[in-house]
């Protein structure tokens, strides 16, 4: 079955593209530029260049609708801008096209980082103390420093219909806080205390609010080290109580699709720090461990019996570039033994971009970094 996959300009979308191919379907890489890593992947059955969903959401939806009709394909959004664009411009899709995207109300709720505490509470999960502040009101922050500043959403809709990306950053003091808030889309953001702890993720697939596939990972390293995402980790046995609470949360959200929940095990307890309702950077490790959740998602969208998606424990993941940065930071910080040990290759390790059977995307990334 042809499947239009968006977002393979990035590692998460590339993993989604490869997973659809591994599941036996024919992914069409819908990319915003012809030099995208997904465009040179052997996994792509075909490549189509479309508008950027961040710059012109309606045109993007019209483009992927036309591609889907031409190939007789369904559509899988691989990024948050694509997800939001389809949710809000579904009228631009031909009625015959099936897209893996819930209603606009459901999508907007799960994409709003300011609503994370409400979503978490439905499952009895905790989030860090959070305040919504602007640069002008930064002096009202009373949670101490260092602190973490987050955008209201990873991609904030603008008045002209475009979407602006906001970055998470750590700040050491009041002036840094005001500066970070001023740099965010709209000059407003979420401020939280900086927490130190081990990262755990709960990744899975939900259908009409029911979690139908799930896996948990722990992170050995992140990038950036202060408030980044997992750059090296492994699949671990599930924490049953955590999984139960996640199921309750997803049921309340009525979510359908892939999801990635990030937790921090800090001295004060376990906190939910992010909810990504899309493909994630380390998706390859679940797929190569036997839990092809994107293929199971296609099964559900097509009304086919859902294939099993249960991962083997212990498989590792490395984000090549981000983990190299993390190890270099550890070396420069005096953790030289840990940095050297971290470089050691290990069997049963999946990578964000590199694949022996699909090497060109990694070569494309190396070429860009070497000559640009």
UniProtKB/TrEMBL annotation:
Q: Which GO terms describe its molecular function?
A: ATP binding; metal ion binding
Keywords, ordered alphabetically: ATP-binding, Nucleotide-binding
Q: Which residues form the ATP-grasp domain?
A: 117-302
Xref: InterPro entries: ATP-grasp
State the Gene3D superfamilies in the record. Answer: ATP-grasp fold, B domain
Q: Which Pfam families match?
A: ATPgrasp_Ter
Q: What is this protein called?
A: ATP-grasp domain-containing protein
| Organism of this sequence | Capillimicrobium parvum
Q: What is the lineage of its organism?
A: Bacteria, Bacillati, Actinomycetota, Thermoleophilia, Solirubrobacterales
């Amino acid at each position: 079955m042809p499947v239009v996959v968006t977002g393979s300009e990035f590692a998460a979308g590339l993993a989604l593209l490869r997973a659809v191919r591994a599941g036996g379907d024919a992914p069409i890489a819908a990319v915003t530029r012809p030099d995208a890593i997904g465009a040179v992947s052997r996994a792509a059955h075909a490549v189509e260049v479309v508008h950027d969903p961040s710059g012109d959401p309606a045109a993007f939806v019209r483009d992927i609708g036309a591609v889907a009709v031409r190939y007789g394909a369904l559509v899988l959004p691989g990024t948050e801008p694509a997800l939001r664009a389809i949710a809000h411009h579904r009228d631009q899709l031909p009625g015959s096209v099936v897209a893996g995207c819930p209603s606009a109300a459901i999508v907007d709720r799960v994409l709003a980082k300011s609503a994370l505490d409400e979503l978490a509470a439905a499952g009895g999960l905790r989030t860090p103390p959070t305040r919504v502040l602007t640069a002008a009101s930064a002096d009202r922050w009373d949670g101490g420093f260092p602190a973490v500043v987050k955008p209201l959403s990873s991609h904030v809709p603008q008045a002209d219909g475009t979407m602006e990306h906001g970055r998470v950053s750590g700040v050491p003091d009041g002036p840094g806080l005001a500066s970070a808030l001023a740099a965010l889309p709209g000059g407003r953001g979420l401020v939280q205390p900086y927490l130190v702890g081990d990262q755990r993720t709960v990744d899975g697939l939900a259908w009409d609010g029911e979690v139908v596939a799930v896996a948990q990972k722990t992170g050995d390293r992140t990038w950036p080290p202060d408030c980044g995402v997992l750059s090296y980790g492994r699949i671990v046995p599930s924490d049953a109580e955590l999984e139960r609470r996640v199921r309750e949360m997803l049921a309340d959200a009525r979510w359908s699709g892939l999801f990635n929940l990030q937790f921090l095990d800090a001295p004060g307890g376990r906190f939910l720090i992010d909810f990504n309702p899309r493909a994630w950077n380390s998706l390859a490790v679940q797929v190569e461990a036997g839990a092809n959740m994107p293929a199971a998602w296609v099964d559900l969208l097509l009304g086919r019996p859902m294939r099993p998606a249960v991962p083997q424990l212990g498989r590792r993941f490395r984000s090549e570039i981000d983990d190299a940065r993390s190890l270099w930071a550890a070396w420069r910080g005096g953790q030289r033994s840990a940095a050297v040990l971290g470089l050691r290759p290990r069997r049963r390790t999946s990578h964000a971009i590199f694949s022996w059977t699909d090497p060109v995307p990694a070569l494309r990334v190396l070429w860009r970094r070497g000559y640009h």
